[in-house]
Amino acid sequence: MNAARVIEGEVIAYLGSYGRPEHLRGTPAEALESLCFSTSPNMGDHGWTRVGKATVTVEIVDEKSIFENKVASLRAEKAQVMAKATAEATEIERKIQTLLAITFEGEAA
To answer: How far apart are CA 79 and CA 85, in angstroms?
Structure first.
């Protein structure tokens, strides 16, 4: 089994494009939830507002867990894509049925 890998470094803290300064006034957990972190100094170009810097420590999980998490993430993404496609197909079918109903009503009259 691999020993846990630890990564430490400095990052820039940003308020996301939909965040507002008052979001930072809550509890530490609430404030952290409203922040985004990046090593890029250019996130302001994407609507983020720089609010400070942070030192982060990340304990990387074992590789098996990383792969399991990635598979779970891809399965969730697949489910969203399929749900959206099903909804769009249902809407198209509704339009088809509406057109067919109009056509048959016209023929019967």
So the answer is: 10
pTM of the entire structure?
0.60
11 in helix, strand or coil?
Answer: strand
pLDDT digits (tens, 9 = 90+) for 58-103: 999 999 999 999 999 999 999 999 999 999 999 999 999 999 988 6
Is 52 in a helix, a strand, or coil? strand
Whether the CB-CB separation of 45 and 90 falls below 8 Å is answered with no
What whole-number distance in Å separates Cα of residue 66 and Cα of residue 2?
A: 12
| CA–CA distance, 101 with 109 (Å, rounded to integer) | 12
